[in-house]
UniProtKB/TrEMBL annotation:
Superkingdom of origin: Eukaryota
Domain TM7S3/TM198-like: 68-258
The name this protein goes by in its record: Transmembrane protein 198
InterPro entries from the UniProt entry: TM7S3/TM198-like_dom, TMEM198
Record region (Disordered): 265-289
Compositionally biased intervals (Polar residues): 279-289
Protein topology in the membrane: Multi-pass membrane protein
Principal location class: membrane
Localization: Membrane
Membrane spanning stretches: 61-82, 89-109, 115-136, 143-161, 167-184, 191-213, 237-259
Organism: Porites evermanni
Record-stated family: Belongs to the TMEM198 family.
Length: 289
C-alpha cells in the first residue's frame, strides 16, 4: 500500500513538472509576442483609470456565469471546507479543471461560447469526480491550487517592490510552493485542508468580485506584473480594495472552520463508551421484552 502511494505521488509530480515546463514555454512565447491583452468580454485592456465611467462594461453570460460560480464555490470553501470534505474536493477539482479548460478554449479555440461552456462543464465534472473518488488526488489538487494562489499573491507584492528580470524566479516560486503545500496536504489532512480551502476560497471570491466591478483588471495587472509582461499602468484605489478582500476572506474562513465547522469532536471520557454500549444493550433487551 505504501509503495503504491509512493508511485502515485511520483506520477503526480512528473505530470506537474511537465505542465510547469509547458506553462514556461507558453509564457515565454506570450511575452515575446506583441498582441494586446484582452478582457474576458473581448475588449482591449486599457490603462488603469480612477474614473468610474471607465468601469462601465457589458457583462456577458459566459464570464458572468463563471464569476458567479467562483463567488458561490469560494463561499462554500470558506464555511464548509473541512466539514464537507467530499463536496470540497469535488468543487476544487471542478473549478480548477473548468478554469484551465475555459482559458485554453478562449485563447486557442474559435468555437462559439456555448460550445466552450459545454466543454468546460464536461471537463470540470470529470475533474471533480476524479478528485472525489481518489482522495489523494483531491488533497494534492487542493494543495496545488492553494499554493499557486498564495504564490501569485506573494509574487505580486514582490514584483511591486522589486522588478525582477527573469522568469525563473516566478516559475521557481510557483512550482516549489505548490508542490510543497500539495505534499503537506496529503500528510496533514485536517489542518492543511482548512488552510488550503480558506486560501482558495478567498481567491475565488476576489476574482468574482474583480470581474463584476472592473472586468478582471486587477487579475490582468497582477498576471502581467508577475510574468514580466507589458505593464498596463498602476491600479486605482478600488483595485486595492478588491485585493484586500482576499486576506479578509482567508481570515474569516480560518476562524469559522477552526472554531466551528472544522472543529474536532471531543473525545469521550474514559469508560463512557462502555456505559453507552451497556445502556444501548439494556434498551434493546427492554424492546425485545
Amino acid at each position: 500500500m505504501i509503495e503504491r502511494s509512493r508511485r502515485f505521488y511520483l506520477s503526480l509530480l512528473r505530470a506537474f513538472s511537465v505542465l510547469a515546463l509547458c506553462s514556461v514555454s507558453s509564457i515565454t512565447a506570450n511575452t515575446n509576442s506583441t498582441k494586446t491583452t484582452e478582457t474576458p468580454n473581448g475588449n482591449a485592456l486599457k490603462s488603469f483609470s480612477c474614473e468610474w465611467k471607465d468601469l462601465e462594461f457589458p457583462i456577458t453570460y459566459g464570464p458572468g456565469i463563471a464569476a458567479s460560480l467562483c463567488v458561490l464555490i469560494g463561499g462554500f470553501h470558506l464555511i464548509f471546507g473541512f466539514k464537507k470534505q467530499r463536496a470540497t474536493l469535488f468543487l476544487t477539482g471542478f473549478s480548477s479543471a473548468a478554469f484551465l479548460t475555459y482559458m485554453i478554449c478562449l485563447i486557442r479555440s474559435s468555437l462559439h461560447i456555448q460550445y466552450i461552456l459545454l466543454i468546460t462543464a464536461a471537463v470540470g465534472i470529470f475533474g471533480g469526480i476524479l478528485c472525489t473518488t481518489v482522495i489523494f488526488c483531491g488533497l494534492f489538487t487542493s494543495g496545488i491550487v492553494a499554493g499557486f494562489s498564495l504564490s501569485m499573491v506573494f509574487l505580486f507584492g514582490l514584483a511591486s517592490l522589486y522588478q525582477y528580470t527573469t522568469l525563473s524566479i516566478p516559475i521557481g516560486v510557483l512550482v516549489s510552493v505548490s508542490v510543497l503545500l500539495a505534499g503537506a496536504s496529503v500528510w496533514w489532512k485536517r489542518v492543511l485542508l482548512i488552510i488550503s480551502s480558506s486560501i482558495y476560497g478567498g481567491v475565488l471570491i476576489m476574482g468574482g468580485i474583480d470581474y463584476f466591478i472592473e472586468d478582471l483588471r486587477l487579475v490582468h495587472h497582477a498576471w502581467d506584473k508577475v510574468f514580466i509582461k507589458q505593464d498596463t499602468g498602476k491600479p486605482c484605489f478600488f483595485s486595492w480594495i478588491i485585493l484586500g478582500v482576499w486576506p479578509l476572506m482567508v481570515l474569516v474562513g480560518l476562524l469559522v472552520q477552526f472554531l466551528k465547522t472544522g472543529k474536532k469532536p471531543p473525545k469521550p471520557a474514559k469508560g463512557e463508551n462502555h456505559r453507552r454500549n451497556h445502556s444501548s444493550q439494556n434498551d434493546q433487551s427492554f424492546q425485545l421484552v
